[in-house]
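Usage example:
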Amino acid sequence: MTTTTYRMDQMTWPEFAARTDRPVILPIGSTEQHSQHLPMGVDARIAEHISEDLAAALDGTVMPTLCYGYKSKPLSGGGPLFPGTIDLNGVTVINLVHDVLSEIIADGFTKIVVMNGHFENEPFVIEAIDLVTRETGGKATIVESNWWDPLTPDVVEKVFEGLDFPGWALEHAAITETSLMLHYEPQLVHMDRMVYKQKVEPKAYVRYPVRKGDVPDYGGLADATGSSAERGRLIAEGCVSEMVKICAEEFGTER
Amino acid sequence: MTTTTYRMDQMTWPEFAARTDRPVILPIGSTEQHSQHLPMGVDARIAEHISEDLAAALDGTVMPTLCYGYKSKPLSGGGPLFPGTIDLNGVTVINLVHDVLSEIIADGFTKIVVMNGHFENEPFVIEAIDLVTRETGGKATIVESNWWDPLTPDVVEKVFEGLDFPGWALEHAAITETSLMLHYEPQLVHMDRMVYKQKVEPKAYVRYPVRKGDVPDYGGLADATGSSAERGRLIAEGCVSEMVKICAEEFGTER
Amino acid sequence: MTTTTYRMDQMTWPEFAARTDRPVILPIGSTEQHSQHLPMGVDARIAEHISEDLAAALDGTVMPTLCYGYKSKPLSGGGPLFPGTIDLNGVTVINLVHDVLSEIIADGFTKIVVMNGHFENEPFVIEAIDLVTRETGGKATIVESNWWDPLTPDVVEKVFEGLDFPGWALEHAAITETSLMLHYEPQLVHMDRMVYKQKVEPKAYVRYPVRKGDVPDYGGLADATGSSAERGRLIAEGCVSEMVKICAEEFGTER
Amino acid sequence: MTTTTYRMDQMTWPEFAARTDRPVILPIGSTEQHSQHLPMGVDARIAEHISEDLAAALDGTVMPTLCYGYKSKPLSGGGPLFPGTIDLNGVTVINLVHDVLSEIIADGFTKIVVMNGHFENEPFVIEAIDLVTRETGGKATIVESNWWDPLTPDVVEKVFEGLDFPGWALEHAAITETSLMLHYEPQLVHMDRMVYKQKVEPKAYVRYPVRKGDVPDYGGLADATGSSAERGRLIAEGCVSEMVKICAEEFGTER
Amino acid sequence: MTTTTYRMDQMTWPEFAARTDRPVILPIGSTEQHSQHLPMGVDARIAEHISEDLAAALDGTVMPTLCYGYKSKPLSGGGPLFPGTIDLNGVTVINLVHDVLSEIIADGFTKIVVMNGHFENEPFVIEAIDLVTRETGGKATIVESNWWDPLTPDVVEKVFEGLDFPGWALEHAAITETSLMLHYEPQLVHMDRMVYKQKVEPKAYVRYPVRKGDVPDYGGLADATGSSAERGRLIAEGCVSEMVKICAEEFGTER
Amino acid sequence: MTTTTYRMDQMTWPEFAARTDRPVILPIGSTEQHSQHLPMGVDARIAEHISEDLAAALDGTVMPTLCYGYKSKPLSGGGPLFPGTIDLNGVTVINLVHDVLSEIIADGFTKIVVMNGHFENEPFVIEAIDLVTRETGGKATIVESNWWDPLTPDVVEKVFEGLDFPGWALEHAAITETSLMLHYEPQLVHMDRMVYKQKVEPKAYVRYPVRKGDVPDYGGLADATGSSAERGRLIAEGCVSEMVKICAEEFGTER
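Running the assembly step on the lines above writes:
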């Protein structure tokens, strides 16, 4: 049995219907510029891969990935002025996640994970979760997280061994995402095209309109030098093993 | 160079930015029960595959697929009461397609195809196209179609050679979808699990609430017996070659 | 007692309140160009007349007609660029039908027919019906149809005796609508102004923006020559008699 | 030439297109209980009749009537708890009027009257007018009124000669509406069923939920005794002649 | 204990939680031009002061004031073309009031007063109240009023003793608001800057777009000459004493 | 001249209109439980006070405070299950901020600060800013910040001298908010009622439904012991002096 077994889009409905007591995982990413060396699908691809690993660990089911997300911001994604960044409005993200969760709850699932790969999605995803929870009287337990928050300090330390950690907000197309892509889909990473000129200084405020120059013109916020598949593996495994514990606690699941 | 070259999610932003004068294709499908022998991702997978073939033919770019669609109806998809059918509200589909198209037009693309794999999506996708067209003063030409309408009568005849054509509305998990999946992803088709008891009689009206029994309990609307990869190839090639002509006429594209 | 007895707008509230166990019919049409020889109210007028005939046959009640509908499309109505076509947004149609149905259900009616006279309305009307059905737990049975789908093949054959049937999509301001208007309101039909130059070729796709020339400049999609009150009568009676059977089956009504 | 000439729904599109420099009038009413002696279509019927008279006076065009309106309130319509009162949500009224006005302005009309027959509609209709005006840069002049506000004091005095005027808020199914219906459609008025027990005392506040007893159980707010077709004629003519002056001032129209 | 005790924003949550059986009052005003002599916060300030007086009389709780309101109209506020008038869209007002009321009802409060200080707010506030009432099955009693409607005729007579009453619609920045501000916050009233040139003639219709000149360029609709703190006190006390009676009747409250 | 001079609600419209070239500041807070010793208005009161100090420093204008905000979350405010926490829906916050900003830009202001006092508001406020910026073509420069992000590391160090800094997320009703309230409105702080039992452990995920126990039953997330007016003054002055620099850079303002 391969990992694809856990994908809802590859199951027939009776196969899916037999799994309502198992966790179901909804990956959400974005389509967003990721500097010169990473493809635009990074957030969605990573969310999907982590979800599949988590499904394998939990005997869960992965729903089809939401490949578009909330607007990329200068301080955490840098995308608004780069071609290829597709920014959904907040209301659209709320409604989309709302409808998908409503339907899966109506199908009888009560153990739901939303696995987010795009920082800016979070408040709108949580708003959707809150609305669905109110409407359904809380009959499903919904856990929302991502691949960075569950990492324990010692995993973060190992991941950045020999490197500087610039803070999560700047980890866009930098060490963690590049390493995860080297781990999962190395053929899509172009280390030879990597550009790094300066670290973006995080600001204490936002200012609109966004202007050319708010983000370096190549599209990166921090240095990706030193990324490796091994570091990517550490993140993936570190995240999944913590998420398994979280699910055990919240859902009472075990393997 | 492989077909994956045409996928936006696998491009860096500069690669994408260099292609604004080429067509861009947005596949939209659904996640919906497809009887006993087909997986739930059929509509999205077919829309994506056809889009990739079309992109290869046109030197176009395929955007990430919208994997969830409008509500499955008894007479054309049969899904509302089957687990795994994820029905988005009409407003959600409109907003989602609206935002994606707005962003791609803001990026400078003017030759856009929306390739639909789920019958019920169409009016809501077109509403989104109409709204975006009004807001942007019509600066992009947007073509919306699917894999069935462009087929010429002689292709349809060849596809159904030796078989009965039950009408497009009932072609859900039947000859055409099964054949397309045998052509594109045979490992996901379970011909041994195929069930067929009776042809659903299309009704001259809709009635709500939908009730168990409106659709046979296995989930099919018509017989898939006789499906083959060869018939699938005929459909795929028949659709793509017509779409190339349509794009030539509407966009002035050629290869 | 005349047919007007069945009109809700002509009843006092106690008369109406006494009829909650009878079917109630909501006609919906549009205001849309209908070529040179038919007035713009055709879709609404026909929906209303058919509804009144059906009410007479069922001892039902006809609600006031929704005279504006969803956007007229080039391939099925041809209206977007002609003065006088009033196109409601999809969300507006959904909300309007939703609110009217909600209220009539709150009044205790459980046998509801929505009679549509404008092809493009259907998906948005059905979305409204679906939403209301979910909100009210399905306590009313709602049937949605129009005057063309219920016609039996032999009625269609008789209606088009000696004529070509161009397909329903092109039946805009053509044989069926002209004949129905000659049957119901001949004083509004100007046969002497009828224009026909070419049959519109139905396309396998939609393209936006709509352009002058997508529809012949007089506004017709197919030929109306040969229309007659008698053909109109056949359609009206053919539709009503089928609708009576449908209501009998769905509502358990009889006369 | 009869008054029906002024109805948009009875015109062909070329007839309508020839009138873009003339005023266009949109009647809006409601479907609402009107006590024991008046039918539920009163607000819509009166708005439509006044609009037709005004169109005749101005050589204007009457659009199809919006027959459903905003929620009936205890102090001005008394409808929420009576069967047959169909209450649209505020957002629905705003969107509906917005879309209709947007389309008529897009058709080139710049002299627009909204003629309201249902007190509660007004703020939501005006919100729609404000939104459309902002969106279109104010290129159309839109006048909104009703059949009561334009009446001069001496007309009001004549209308109520020998009677008490209870204030406009209570004029629901009372002297003015009954008289107007006797003037325009006497066959729909049942003077023999008229009930009057007590005058409703207008309150200085609203209280929700509305309760049985907030309005007398027969549905009236004030006494209709003394209503006559002649009083109705005075109102209709008094309103139309003032509206003609208003249009002359705002549109520069004359006859 | 001072009047500030009644302010929710000055209470801790346990203090507030102990008062669920007492009335809770939500003041709503606007930010709107008030001619030359009054500040823009008048509507909000007066609503808040009256609410505090009412809370003191009822042992109720005053929620934080909604300081922005629905669009100022020429005939009742004169604001749309004056800097500083902040006009919320109708939908925004409905949603804002809806959410605040929903939350307070979820907290267990069942005796709610909405105290309005801005004429134009009323229909949108009431729409919100209606929606919340439907959603919560009417478990809270919600009274909506303002500071002018509850005044008895003899109070109005005393307030305008020696002056002309121009009608409530024109009472914008005129006798009543100026007097109330002289009563509550005299330091914010600049009697020396008062301008009065002509009484605005109320029109029998509205016309859009609003034009410079629809309202006198200084911003007033009627004369404020003769305003006094004493007249303000009469209004405040007259309103509060009536509101106490209304609450006694609707809530069964007493002191 | 007192600080009240900078409040828009205390200005007449001509005073306000004379200041369009100066910065305008919109404070937004919330109404939310703040443990046992702080009142529920803390977020709004602090946002307002900081805004007034900033206005004084910049010769700016403070708009009326938005006193209700987005939903309080367990990990950053702890409010959803405590009486008195008033949670607006995301869409409501977006629309409210959108409308207020639209209007102030329409009035000619181009230097706008949104000063936020409630952590959870931020993404929804920024969504509103983004929408307004798109609609107005970016003609105003809008800076959004709060009172914590602009603090320099050495100010934070001084503020927490002798204390542990638990991280900003837990700084709810703890050292910083308590100190700011002791600085601005000591009469509203009840140090004697302060409760602290355990530090809440920030979680790496969110889980819905929120449950009693997710937050300690008294309502605090971290210890407030050691709070002082002096620490509050350091925060206020530290924030304002940085904001002055930010405004100088973004607006070109100086004093």
